[in-house]
Every structure is written in structure tokens, then in C-alpha cells.
């Protein structure tokens, strides 16, 4: 075990690492081409998977080369960071909508999900996806990313919804996630990340007003979100690390939400029983480090997303070190880590950044982390 791994080992848990990353990686042109060929019926599903395998092996080796300890499959088998996983549940299906999700200056492809039966986790294809990653990661830690249960709870509303009682929905959703977590663990996973955009609702008054229009008070919904996560992970094995990435939107280098963590700080930092939090801090939209004063647990790792994944220009290393030092005024330096603020390709389209710049960003994270945590 390396010194970096050992420094992040608490109660038999490994990760987050001093230099870490959120997960998704730009899809290469060969993979994009293969997906189009598969959609047109020009190649088989097996042929597509073989191409995915080859590209995943390539980026696994590249992640090792730049010095990362946590290795992901780049989400190369997915079109979306969330829909692909959620559609793998029993009782959930995807459908085409009239319009996509509106970001700051761009719109996604039209796609949503709906619940048309009892939610359950039985034969989910991503278990096999993880097993492949686990095999090729070797001595490195295979990290897998899935959407938070809140992303299904807050699904696209549809008149054909199966559930009429919110409590029944939550009960089945939590049980399905408990099964999912155990299934990933049984497949060898020891580092699992929940990705969640729902918390950004509470970072602005516009978001709070939207929450009220749905019939909730912000404080009520914050607690419901926290409970969903806590109950979903309540039975996780002692040596399984579970983290959460809080996102404000990441599509084609654009974003959806703005605002600091202040309004939801007490819930996020003291009310959610994850082992680590990946926090966006790459620009002024994320606010300052003052909300970190609510961190009361000495076993909670805070991963500072100070390096942007949206644009290729490298941040000044000393500026990043100074910001880490500033954050350490609120949280012990030994509880801090460094990463990009989000993935490089939350959807298959990817951010407006080159592959060369992407790897330079990740290598930048590793080099800065080595300097800070000697």
C-alpha cells in the first residue's frame, strides 16, 4: 500500500485520495463512431462492447500513468451519467421528451426517465461493467460512480407514474439502492461514489422558490434528501468507502445552478453519513470556504474541486495551493483532498476541452497534491 493510500485509510476504508477525480472521461472518436454504428445496426452489441473494453483498458493505463490511485472506466459504457444507471432498475424506463434539459447556454438531448412499476434491483448490467474495471485496475483502486437515490426520487414527473404514495416510493427506492450497494461490494467494489445535482436547488433563492412550487419547504426537502442517502447506505460493509459528488450541472462546459453551500451546509456536512464529499470550487459560483466550518466529523474527507474540467487552461499551481491553505482554516489539512470540480464528460458529448488538456488537468491535480501533502 502506498503512503497516499495509507493516509486515506480510516476504519479499513480506502479513499478518497489526496489526488482524486470525479470519474467521467472524454469519449474518444473511435467509441463515438462505434456507438453510432451500433445505433444504425452496422455492428453488434458484442462488437461495441469489445471496442468499449479496448478503450477502457487504454484510459485505465493512462490514469495510472498520470499518477492517480483511484481508477474509473470513464463512464465509457454510458450515454448519460445518471439515466443509464437508473434505467437498469426494475420499474424504471427511459423515454424521449419534447425538449432537453436547459443549461446556462445550451440544451441537452431530449431524454428523461419514468417509473412504471415497482422499483427493484435485480439483474443490473453495471455489475458486469464494474467487474471488468476491477479486473483491469490491478493494484489500483477501482472506483465506480452511480447517481444518488435522489436523482430517481426527483425524476421527470409523468402522468403514468406507478407510485401514488411518496412513502412507498422512498421505501422501495432505498431497498433497491441497498441491494445495489451490496451487489457492487460482492463484485469487489470498495470505493463507490454517489453523484447528486439535487443539492444545488438549495443554493439560490430561485432554487428554493422552485422547491416551494413543488409543495415542499426547502428545509423539509433537504432532510428528505439526506434521509434517502443515509437509509440507502445504512447497511454498507465497514470497509466500503462511499462518497458523494455535489454538482451544479456539467454539460458541454456549461452549468445550471449557482450559489454557495451556505443554505444547506449544516445538512450536507453534518447530516449525511458518507465518507467523503466532492465539492465544486472552481469559480465564484460555488462561493467561499466559510461553510466548511460546519464540518464536525474528523473522519469526513473533503475533496476540493479547485481544478475546472470545463476549460483547458491550467490553473496557476500556487493559487491552488493557497486556496487549499485557505480551506484548511476551516477543516484540518489532513481531511482535505484535491480534484477537478466535476467529470470531463457527464454525457457522451463531453466538455469543450481536448483529451490532451484533460490528462494535463489530472496530472496537474496529482503534482499539486504531492506538493501539498508531502
Automatic annotation (TrEMBL):
Top-level lineage group: Bacteria
Record keyword Membrane present: no
SUPFAM superfamilies from the UniProt entry: UROD/MetE-like
Enzyme class: transferase
GO biological process: methylation
Keywords of the record: Methyltransferase, Transferase
Listed GO MF terms: 5-methyltetrahydropteroyltriglutamate-homocysteine S-methyltransferase activity
Cross-referenced NCBIfam families: PRK06520.1
PANTHER family: METHIONINE SYNTHASE (PTHR43844:SF1)
Name of the featured protein: 5-methyltetrahydropteroyltriglutamate--homocysteine S-methyltransferase
Amino acid at each position: 500500500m502506498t503512503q497516499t493510500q495509507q493516509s486515506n485509510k480510516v476504519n479499513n476504508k480506502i479513499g478518497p485520495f489526496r489526488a482524486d477525480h470525479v470519474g467521467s472521461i472524454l469519449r474518444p472518436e473511435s467509441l463515438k463512431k462505434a456507438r453510432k454504428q451500433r445505433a444504425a445496426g452496422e455492428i453488434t452489441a458484442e462488437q461495441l462492447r469489445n471496442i468499449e473494453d479496448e478503450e477502457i483498458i487504454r484510459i485505465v493505463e493512462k490514469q495510472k500513468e498520470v499518477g492517480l490511485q483511484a481508477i474509473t472506466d470513464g463512464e465509457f459504457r454510458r450515454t448519460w451519467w445518471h439515466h443509464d444507471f437508473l434505467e437498469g432498475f426494475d420499474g424504471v424506463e427511459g423515454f424521449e421528451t419534447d425538449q432537453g434539459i436547459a443549461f446556462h447556454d445550451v440544451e441537452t438531448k431530449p431524454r428523461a426517465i419514468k417509473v412504471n412499476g415497482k422499483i427493484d434491483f435485480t439483474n443490473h448490467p453495471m455489475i458486469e461493467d464494474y467487474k471488468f474495471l476491477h479486473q483491469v485496475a490491478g493494484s489500483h483502486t477501482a472506483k465506480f460512480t452511480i447517481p444518488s437515490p435522489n436523482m430517481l426520487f426527483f425524476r421527470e414527473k409523468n402522468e403514468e407514474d406507478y407510485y401514488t404514495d411518496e412513502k412507498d416510493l422512498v421505501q422501495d427506492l432505498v431497498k433497491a439502492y441497498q441491494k445495489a450497494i451490496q451487489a457492487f461490494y460482492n463484485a469487489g467494489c470498495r470505493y463507490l461514489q454517489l453523484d447528486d445535482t439535487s443539492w444545488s436547488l438549495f443554493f439560490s433563492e430561485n432554487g428554493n422558490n422552485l422547491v416551494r412550487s413543488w409543495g415542499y419547504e426547502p428545509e423539509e426537502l433537504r432532510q428528505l434528501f439526506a434521509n434517502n442517502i443515509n437509509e440507502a447506505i445504512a447497511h454498507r460493509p465497514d470497509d466500503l468507502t462511499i462518497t458523494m459528488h455535489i454538482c451544479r450541472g456539467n454539460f458541454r462546459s456549461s452549468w445550471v445552478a449557482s450559489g454557495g453551500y451556505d443554505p444547506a451546509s449544516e445538512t450536507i456536512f453534518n447530516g449525511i453519513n458518507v465518507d467523503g464529499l466532492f465539492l465544486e470550487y472552481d469559480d465564484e459560483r460555488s462561493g467561499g470556504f466559510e461553510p466548511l466550518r460546519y464540518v464536525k466529523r474528523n473522519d469526513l474527507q473533503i475533496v476540493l474541486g479547485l481544478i475546472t474540467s470545463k476549460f483547458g487552461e491550467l490553473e496557476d499551481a500556487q493559487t491552488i495551493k493557497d486556496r487549499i491553505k485557505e480551506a484548511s482554516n476551516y477543516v484540518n489539512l489532513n481531511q482535505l483532498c484535491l480534484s477537478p470540480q466535476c467529470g470531463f464528460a457527464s454525457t457522451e458529448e463531453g466538455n469543450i476541452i481536448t483529451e490532451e488538456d484533460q490528462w494535463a488537468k489530472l496530472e496537474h491535480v496529482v503534482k499539486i497534491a504531492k506538493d501539498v501533502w508531502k
